[in-house]
Amino acid sequence: MSSDATALDDERERFPTLTPAGRAMLDFLREHPAAPTYRNQSGNKLLAHEVEDVRAFERDVAAASVGWPADRRPAWLDDFVRTTYASVPHYRALGAVPAEWSQIAPVNRADLANDIAAFVPDDADIARMINFRTTGTTGHPLIIASHPVVAARYLAFHKRALRRFGVQLAHGAGQVGVVLLGFQQRCFTYVSVTPTMGESGLAKINLHPDEWRTPQDRATYLDALAPEVVAGDPISFAELLTLPVTMRPRALLSVSMLLLPALRAQLEQRFGCPVLDIYSLNEVGPVAVYDARVGGHVLLQPRLYVELLDSAGNPVAPGQRGEITVSGGFNFCLPLLRYRTGDHAALDMSGEVPVLAGLLGRSPVRYRTPGKWINNIDVTHALQHLPIPHFGVHQEANGVVVLRLAQAMTPLGDQARAALEKLFGAGSVMLAVLTADDKTVQYTSDLAGARE
Questions:
Q1: How many angstroms separate the CA atoms of 307 and 324, rounded?
Q2: Does Lyase count among this protein's keywords (predicted)?
Q3: How far apart are the C-alpha atoms of 367 and 125, rounded to whole Å?
Q4: Rounded mean pLDDT of the chain?
Q5: What domains does the chain contain, in order, with CATH numbers?
Q6: Rounded distance, CA 304 to CA 160, Å?
Q7: How far is CA 207 from CA 89, 226, 317, 433, in A?
Q8: Are 274 and 267 in contact (CB under 8 A)?
Q9: Angle of the 376-383 helix axis to the 413-424 helix axis, nearest 10
Q10: Average pLDDT for residues 239-243, to the nearest whole number?
Q11: pLDDT of amino acid 407
């Protein structure tokens, strides 16, 4: 088979429903004079009937309510538990469904990392399954079992989040819908189209200058794409702020890292659009979006049950902080039962939709200050007035606090140190440069008792 024929077959596999208009969009994204180096190939892989299924799913999610009565679990959960125990090897091996919810043993990332296949249902379509590897900031790199339909379903929850802020997506054929930003030495980059949005364009790009013919091409290319939505993390958004772009997206979506209010304010002022802070996990997908009007992250998934557990696996009292533990979800290749996420918050059930208040990623860490312990949320509050995209705070065994900032943020170092010294005392905070590891855990300590 010729190389051209092989390339065509690869394209058909990645884009089974591609039309001439969709191919023209792919060509535009790849061949623009200012385009970056695209190092990878990817695609939606959706079959024609799956495109319609995803559209129906989006309509259902848009119309569904999210939540459950404060004194009991959601009605759909019992059937979900029975199906999971019958079809998932890990649970089937445990025997009958426990009589009480509390008897279902929680699982965590280490359990999935140890044997992901044991958590995949028997009826999963192995031939259509896709897998991707996540980096292990908590010591457990993980392969996630997924499917092209599951990947396409993310958009339903992003749309729900955007509608909360008055944004209804409209870009379709001949337009670029989404640009995904990274800013790393090397990251996965590709172009694609979104069939449920008229084959609007999608591009995952790396803003690192080494990925471009000239650094100036970054702004030229983004302005040429004029995406409706730009998604990234605080690191890539901080780099975006340095570029002389004139594009006007309708929204920015921040995922994967803590977004401090000062940086959000800078982005909103610069681009004149809402900046959504979305709490999302590779294992679960988009979970919640921050809404200052309700004081926390509003849940997005109609079929995701959230409970908060203490370190012993017991539910915390109403209004208390605990580890976010989820059941259900939309990934039919990885149904979850009492999955401990490693993230912590309080759950507010007082409104129309459950809200995660005081959300902090990963296990909370206590820091020793003169005379008392404080939570890492206090550290976050101390720094929130500064537009820092990412940072690390480590307390050494002798009590000294090391604040790590990216090289570009060192001009803010003195202000950040002064803010922390209000908590820890004068002369107790040292500055260091954050390493190239984009996934650095933000809060760490060598002190005994730092982990609650």
A1: 6
A2: no
A3: 47
A4: 91
A5: 3-68+144-302+346-359 (3.40.50), 366-445 (3.30.300.30)
A6: 15
A7: 42, 16, 45, 20
A8: no
A9: 140
A10: 95
A11: 83
